[in-house]
Amino acid sequence: MLHTRLCDLFGIDYPVLNAPMGGGDAPAQLAAAVSEAGGLGLIGGTTMGGAEWLVAQIRLARDLTDRPFGVGFISHLPNAAELMAVALREGVRIVAHSFADPSPFVEAAHDVGAIVLCQVRTVDDARRAASAGVDVVTAQGTEAGGHTGLVSTFPLLPAVVDAVAPVPVVAAGGIADGRGIAAALMLGAEGVWLGTRFLATHECGTSDAYKERVVSATGDDTVLTDLFDIAVGMPWPEGVSGRAIRNRFVERWESREDELRTWAIEHRDQYRSLGGDTEVAERAIWAGEAASFVTGIESAADVVRDLVADAADVLTARPATVLRNP
Ligand SMILES: Cc1cc2nc3c(=O)[nH]c(=O)nc-3n(C[C@H](O)[C@H](O)[C@H](O)COP(=O)(O)O)c2cc1C
Three-state SS for 299? Predict the structure, then answer.
């Protein structure tokens, strides 16, 4: 059975976390299902619904599971502190920050006994997070779906482990099966945080068309781009771009970023409201290189169960084949 320090810290069975995917992609149903299956569910706390949505989601998750779960935030946005305060007031005791210096958030969380995670994309940011006093650092490689940096998980993860020791590190980006989990643990991670693998689950908040596109895609189909962020007029911190499945919108606008920046407000509003048939071709279908391993729509509980069983198999079987006696 997989067991690391993080299981004891969070009070969970397996060190497998779902990524707190914003915009409603990681709602209460997903977080609760992952927690019920023995992992740690994280609600993506940043959505257009603000505090009211978040309160309803936390209460729903609590109706669905008695196990620990947390909430994650897109922390460079101005409402991050307010949303974290709402989560803490609702009794959430695990919070995750990303895309910002976590310093402004740590004290308020620790004051009520909450555990703070911070997702980073560089070794410098990992050091900054550890100095700020976070309890767990998540090292996110560029293979990740959604917004991410430029360094791959394989070199980033052990460098972050070394830089922040003894703070435990969770690996994110490109992990979607037992082999990936085993590799992350070998590189020094004490847990894994998966987004793309959970996109095609019944509990994920994305549309059916989105899920089907992730299932049909492979890692070769993804692109790291700023085009979608420019289109909706939402800037991200320096060094952060979004990984999505290449589509008609990317084909049309690639290398024409400056032109896209001149879009009128009405045009942006019109773009934001595109849905239905046009969603997959025109909007951002955020997904990572691990799309290659997403081959069907299943329940989040099945995903957690398979991941844990496969990782245990790999960790048991591989040494026997690699360390064969002469
Ligand atoms: C659809 C989607 C939405 C995401 N939204 C967020 C978010 O709101 N906040 C965040 O910290 N990370 C977000 N991420 C990134 C994840 O936290 C995580 O780093 C990533 O999914 C890990 O890589 P993987 O997709 O290969 O599993 C998102 C990822 C995806 C695929």
Answer: coil
Ligand 1 pocket, 88 CB below 6 A? no
pTM: 0.97
Are the C-beta atoms of residues 101 and 132 closer than 8 Å to each other? Answer: yes
The 8-class DSSP code of residue 219 comes to G
CB within 8 Å of 279: residues ≥ 6 apart? 207, 209, 210, 285
The tens digit of pLDDT for each residue in 99-119 reads: 999 999 999 999 999 999 999
Residue ranges with strand state E in the chain: 16-18, 41-44, 69-74, 94-98, 115-120, 136-140, 146-148, 169-172, 191-194, 222-225, 241-245
State whether residue 46 is helix, strand or coil.
coil
Distance 260 CA to ligand 1 centre (A): 25
Structural domains of the chain in order of their starting residue, each with its CATH number: 5-205+294-322 (3.20.20.70), 208-289 (no CATH)
Write the residue with the smallest CA distance to atom 8 of ligand 1: 22
